[in-house]
Amino acid sequence: MTTQLLKTSEADLAYDVHGPLPTADGRPPLVMIGQPMDARGFGALASHFPERTVITYDPRGLGRSTRKDGRVDHVPRTQAADVHAVIEALGAGPVEMFASSGGAVTALALVAAYPEDVTTLVAHEPPLIPVLPDAQAAERARAGVRDAYEKKGWGAGMAAFIAMTSWRGEFTEDYFAQPAPDPAAFGMPAEDDGSRDDPLLSDRSWAVSSYRPDVDALTAAPTRVVIAVGEESGDVFTGRTSVATAELLGQQATVFPSHHGGFLDGEFGYAGQPEAFARKLREVLEDAG
């Protein structure tokens, strides 16, 4: 693995190249992106593609990628331009791409803006509120997470986030009538360290979950777009957003093993099934021919 630093006017973007460039097998590089997760989260998944050249990166302002634009918010179109710059720097495009969570939102924005960059995109569980029938209630639930974080810190915010993302079905008054979850019940600290800059719990990433996919651009693009959903996600928030996004694009969501973090090993405390997940991803990519 080699690490590169791409310096742009607004950010210094760190990305890792696992394998040779040009690729050894003649296949395009396989780019893996997340948000707010950085490159570290793809270690287990990348290890199951030893025959491929895999690219991972840290989004601007996260991990090793530093910002020079004076901003703290995370905007899909801005991050799409960053990923486009990385693909250009590789000199080996178009690429195949696996993108998860907020990274899947970035990837949808990338394909809409730069349709020649990606041959096949597997967009895993994009958390897109506007596609939901209960979008207004979902926005209220999201605000509740931010409010808990602002009021009591990371433990309270993360407990509220878990409660939101594990709620099954639409966000009804029953959801909002619940007492605030106890951080200790989730193994979270109750103490407040005073920081309020978490990209997941603050409103810094609201542009990600508020993104509305450009359906016309996505369907017109030469890219094969596959919306993926974890078999365990069912009718929780990201399961519902995945199914609804797939329907917008005139397809059914492709079912992958495990949950929202299905490609993770136990290192992050949210272990999925990375080997089975990688097997499914390989099948989907090979189906593209």
Structure summary:
The chain has 289 residues and is of the alpha/beta class. The chain is built from ten helices and nine strands.
Topology:
Blueprint: E1 2-7, E2 11-18, E3 30-33, H1 43-47, E4 54-57, E5 66-67, H2 76-90, E6 95-100, H3 102-113, E7 118-124, H4 135-152, H5 154-166, H6 173-176, H7 206-209, H8 215-220, E8 224-230, H9 237-248, E9 254-256, H10 274-287
Parallel strand pairs: 3-4, 3-6, 6-7, 7-8, 8-9
Antiparallel strand pairs: 1-2, 2-4, 2-5
Derived from helix and strand composition plus strand pairing, the structural class reads: alpha/beta
Q: Any idea what the shape is?
A: globular
Summed over residues and divided by their number, the pLDDT gives a mean of: 95
What's the tally of helices? 10
Which bin fits the share of residues in helices? 25-40%
Provide a descriptive summary of the structure in words.
With 289 residues, this protein is an alpha/beta fold. 36% of the residues lie in helices and 16% in strands. The protein contains ten helices and nine strands. The chain has helices at residues 43-47, 76-90, 102-113, 135-152, 154-166, 173-176, 206-209, 215-220, 237-248, 274-287, and strands spanning 2-7, 11-18, 30-33, 54-57, 66-67, 95-100, 118-124, 224-230, 254-256. Strand 1 and strand 2 form a beta hairpin. The radius of gyration is 18 Å and the shape is globular. The mean pLDDT is 95.
